[in-house]
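notes to self, project folder thing:

trying the whole complex as one job this time. last attempt i did each chain seperately and stitching them together was a nightmare. two parts in total, labels are on each line so i dont mix them up again. if this works i'll redo the older ones the same way
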Amino acid sequence: MNEQALVQIKNLSKTIGSKKIIKNLNLDLYKGQITGFLGPNGAGKTTTIRMMVGLMKPTEGDVLIDGQSVKHHFEESIEKVGVIVENPEMYKYMSGYKNLLHFSRMHKGISKKRINEVIEQVGMQNRINEKVGSYSLGMRQRLGLAQALLHKPKFLILDEPTNGLDPAGIWEFRLYLQKIARENGVAVFVSSHLLSEIELLCDRIAIIQNGELIDIKNVKELQQSRFYLKAEPLAQTEEILAGIGFPVSRHDGGLLVETEPEHIPGAIKILVNAEVSIFAIQPFQATLEDQFLELTGGGEIAQAHTK
Amino acid sequence: MLKLIQNEWMKLWSRKSSWIMIILLAVILFSSSAITKWVDNSMNTANTETWQQLEAAEMANNLILLENNSLGDVRREYLEGEVAIAEHRLENDVAPFDSNSMQQSVIDSHALMSLVTLFTVIVAGGIVAAEFSQGTIKMLLTRPVKRWKILSSKFITTMLYALLLAVVLFIVTAVAGLIFYGVSDGTYLVWNGSEVVEGSFWLEGLRLAALSFVNVLMISTFAFMLGTAFRSSSLAIGLSIFLLFTGVQAVFLLANYEIVKYYLFTHTDLTQYYTGFMLVDDITMTLSVIVLFVYFVIFMAISYVTFGKRDVTA
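result (full assembly):
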């Protein structure tokens, strides 16, 4: 993908008091791609997102959205962004419709027709005229999504979006996000602590810890094919496999072989010919959770900073 | 900007308290007229003096006051005018309005402007602070609208609400006066500096109300600033109402010091230049306007700077 990034986070830093909460963060986000933002509590996810949408001012660095700086051209850059920061707090004393009307007036050229269209998209037609105070958390999430989509943003930022949705809601939500990413080329940035959710939703995952970006991975890469092999004698097996060009590593009293399934029968034949006793061979799937814990050092919570 | 004000206006009227305050204002004004009427009826025997006797007594009193050489210019001019009007009334047999009449109620309507201040302060202190306490501030500030525009729309909406309350005050006072007291015979006279001429009581009432509105403006701007800077509506409302009632008292404490001339509450009541109740003798309208303007600019500057720079973590 040699495409120009839609969103560029450049050398973003935030110091509060004497503590550097975000340390020189660099990250590019692309059209049509859903990027997950993972990190233990207190790693700086929310602070980063707040700086991206102009709620907090970066101490250093900047965020460019479609080439426009959030710092210097706030209106032009934010126009292209739809935001849900944590729980979408709405005006509880007004109806859902009035809330949407309220936010639509803050953008240019949103018609009543567009408001109704969005209401239908998030499936809120039946209760849109009731006061938000009477909504369940799930319904507020839907309304939150509706307000973020009103102005057809090119870039959607979601902080813990599935919080409070029921399983069917989460499923629908996931399909919907993937659809607007694919079909409308929207870049999506989702922070969540629900690892399994991120795994299903995202194309790419950025991992942050203690204010530093420690890894960016494509989900496909994470789901690469690996096999777990238990055989005797182990050292000899490892030597043979490495000798014929398989990437091998030790794992849990056996070996992990990185390869595509079609190479497995051939490998077994070679091992049998070398008189290795094979006890088990099975596909190995490390969950994102395992990898996340591995990367963040057991998921220990970063020193909490004062919010 | 118009759309932003429309938004704030919609939010304002979606809350019950905004309606309650307007209704409460009307109810208080009506019942105070009714109570005055009732009190007067039950002791109407006491009031047997004619208007001529009252005018003459007041004129004599004013003449005694005028003999005092240390009188400030504004106060002296006012008293001379009053004496001239009283002389004119007695000579030409022109009666003033009855003290309980629709016309006198209109002229005095500004006296209850502090109720408008009280209710406006509640809106002014909460209009920004509530966005923070409800958490809606983050939805509001992640829109393609600069922060100063949002703050301006909130300030303008507060002032529109105050204006509406002031209009309600004026109209309800007139209507209640008409219902409870009726129209009195009499003529409104003014001293224009060289002679006594007839004036309009409507215009006089409006002028005094407009001057009192400056007080509403100043105190609610103060509450607006506190609500914006501290994000706490209770602090903003409490402190502003406290100052509304005690601020003027401090003028008397400070009266012997030069600083009293630059103290906000020495100047907030601009009607003092027309009703003769000067708080401090040697101040002028020009000085008052300048001092009020400087305070206003400071209050606004603090509001805009804190709102514009704040990191939103709510």
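what i see at first glance: Residues 224-284 of chain A form a domain with the Alpha-Beta Plaits fold (CATH 3.30.70.120).
need to look closer tmrw
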